[in-house]
Design a protein that fits this description.
Largest sheet: none
CATH class: Mainly Alpha
CATH topology: Four Helix Bundle (Hemerythrin (Met), subunit A)
Number of domains: 1
Radius of gyration: 19 Å
Strand content: under 5%
């Protein structure tokens, strides 16, 4: 118990920074996005996601430039990302389920892949923390996957058939939407696989460390 308390104190030490505040803002924007999207204000929901993306870009840059990288930030930033991505996936799953097109309705299950990946990543993070291992920073594939996800989802929310914010000016054909989502899904799978070797290595190293400590 004392070990967990010490670990939590280490995580929150020096955590009152602008980058961490921006990450917190991204989390607070999630219910606003849900409300706007659910009530049909898709343009407003799109603006919220854009603002969220801007704060995501700023917090990392500020943290690196002003040496405000903290243990809390390393946890808060990916949590904000994952909660946002989970929320977007759920809302688009619901929206696709309401489509008049049978193929679009059937395709909605692809969004469960994004949901499963993020939930597994969060669960993995909890397991690592329970073993006193801090999850590592995002791999290159993870960053590319996140960028692809946000780009694709923003395009769909803006120009998707039936519900796109600007569909009166231009809207994607449903096949185009499916292709875009599949591209993001493939990147998501690649990113998830890329985390597995590093996680296994960290668990093995921790196990070896415990064995060595017992032998001392």
């Amino acid at each position: 118990m004392s070990n967990l308390k010490t670990q939590m104190e280490d995580i929150f030490k020096g955590g009152l920074t602008i980058p961490n505040a921006l990450s917190a803002v991204r989390i607070l924007l999630i219910p606003l996005f849900v409300y706007l999207f659910y009530t049909g204000d898709v343009k407003g929901a799109l603006i919220v996601i854009i603002v969220s993306g801007i704060t995501d870009s700023l917090d990392g840059r500020i943290a690196r430039k002003y040496n405000q990288i903290t243990a809390l930030g390393k946890l808060l930033d990916p949590v904000a990302d994952k909660l946002t991505q989970i929320t977007i996936a759920i809302m688009l799953f619901i929206e696709f389920d309401k489509s008049d097109s049978g193929s679009v309705r059937s395709f909605r299950f692809v969004f469960l892949l994004f949901l499963a990946k993020e939930l597994l990543m969060m669960l993995g993070g909890v397991v690592l923390l329970a073993k006193n291992i801090r999850p590592g920073a995002a791999e290159v594939y993870g960053k590319v996957s996140t960028f692809t996800f946000y780009t694709v989802m923003l395009l769909i929310i803006a120009f998707g058939p039936d519900f796109g914010a600007f569909r009166e000016f231009f809207q994607f054909h449903e096949v185009t939407v499916m292709v875009l989502v599949l591209i993001s899904a493939v990147m998501t799978i690649i990113a998830f696989i890329s985390y597995i070797p590093g996680t296994i290595t960290e668990l093995k190293d921790k196990k070896t460390e415990k064995v060595n400590n017992k032998n001392i």
